[in-house]
Amino acid sequence: METAIKTPAIADSTAWPHYEFPNILAASDRVNWRVEDLIGGGKRLDFSMPFLPESLARVEPLDFLSENERRTLNQIRAHDYLYIFGLVEEFILPFVLDHVRSALHGNEARVRAFLNFAGEEAKHIDLFKRFRQDFIASFGTACEVIGPPEAIAQAVLSKHPLAVALVILHIEWMTQRHFVDSIVDDENLDPQFKSLLKHHWMEESQHAKLDTLMVQEILRTCTEEERSKAIDGYLEIGSMIDEGLAQQVRFDFESLQRVTGRAFTPEEFERFQEVQLQATRWTFLGTGMSHKNFLAVAELVQEGAKARLEAIAPFFS
Ligand SMILES: [Fe+2]
Ligand SMILES: [Fe+2]
């Protein structure tokens, strides 16, 4: 019978980014903010402004929509953003808790950094929910969403931990990219929504590093065979998410119809699908999959992963 070979050499190679738990913990303690300071009381969303940057929303190519309708679609997409981030954090939270629980003694900075990570994700779930409540209260029309989150979380968590950790790493770098590439310099966004994106980015910056360490730790426990299937597992979760996104785009079209009261032609529906499916794919899949830091770790997990993912990423751009 063939004996499984462990891979400590790969997991401990000096090619890995050098992140340290005490520094990450210190940054997390410094950044810490409260949900109450971002939403609620006098702090409300301003529906006269767009919420998402155009590079993620891609409403401008839809020239059969008026300016007001394009802004409304931008806001429907922002509602998806709140919901989908809340949804993915539903599986990140238990995954990180399970991971830290596997070694609770001996490295206090590690335990505290991972517990902060989990606590911050629980806070983000609350943050996204409260923004959604404010959105729903003002928007006036229900926006249907995919789910339920628990079922999606269960489906993702049924995959190998190495694949799940890679998906989480993708999500963390994706959040960094959204803010740095398209939000920080955008002066036209609603200040409240922009503040949410900024504060999320501030804490996710530590998560991206912790996730890299988490992938590295999980890799130390994996056999060659498990490692060789990691990218396949990551892509399987990706295609599951992609199916959900396609359904979400159909819901968004229905929401837009409901709120504008317009009847669109079949050609307009087709154009909407074409532009918005790619916009949604870019937002949640392409921006993470093609992030250079994510690709670097994927390559350390499995040789050839970078080229493989770079060949697939344009499908989500
Ligand atoms: Fe988060
Ligand atoms: Fe995170």
The best one-word shape is globular
Give the helix proportion (percent range): over 70%
Cα(first) to Cα(last) distance is 45 Å
The total of helices stands at 13
Our estimate of the beta-strand percent is under 5%
Number of strands: 0
Largest sheet: none
In the predicted model, the low-confidence regions spanning at least 5 consecutive residues are: none
Query: What's the multimeric state?
Result: single chain
Would you give an account of this structure?
The protein has 317 residues and is mainly α. It contains 13 helices and no strands. The protein has helices spanning 8-11, 21-31, 54-57, 67-101, 108-139, 149-157, 161-183, 191-220, 224-228, 230-260, 266-289, 292-301, 305-312. Bound molecules: fe (ii) ion (FE2) (2 copies).
